[in-house]
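Following up on my earlier message about calcium ion. Here are the inputs again, as you asked, copied directly from the submission form:
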Amino acid sequence: MFQNIYAILALGIFCQLSTSTLAVQNITISFFAADLNGCDDLSKCDAFVELLCVTSLSDGRDCGKTKYIQDDNYPVWPEEFTFSNTTGEVLRRWQIKVLDDDVAFNDVIATVVLPFEEFVKATETQRNHKIDLGGRGSLYVTRVNSS
Ligand SMILES: [Ca+2]
Ligand SMILES: [Ca+2]
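Thanks, got it. Here's what our run produced:
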């Protein structure tokens, strides 16, 4: 019984470390957040998400942005983003920035990094992958579909 559990854990660790080519070639994601806080003095957050893609060819290029949702600490962004791995360019990770829209300067709520492989593994069992925003709430990355 316990040996089986350890074997499964070891397999999981091995898979995370493995850099073998993923079977997943296309993936579509969307975002929602919970418990956002600390944005505005008199109102709730006006949050939006910016995406940078780190790939085999790029250290970080813009690859997506949501519109902001006003005065909502539990925003559900409707935008969906699709990514394709090709033989020429492989997505390694997303740098995800959650910001609060403001009149003068947009404030960064949090910046997090999500490795593509980690996301694929996590969403094999659950549709949403939760990322802690360091006291500023949680970001959920939803796996809309994949092939
Ligand atoms: Ca606000
Ligand atoms: Ca604001």
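One observation from looking it over: The pocket of calcium ion (ligand 2) is lined by residues 39-40, 46, 100-102 (CB under 6 Å). Hope that helps, and feel free to reply on this thread.
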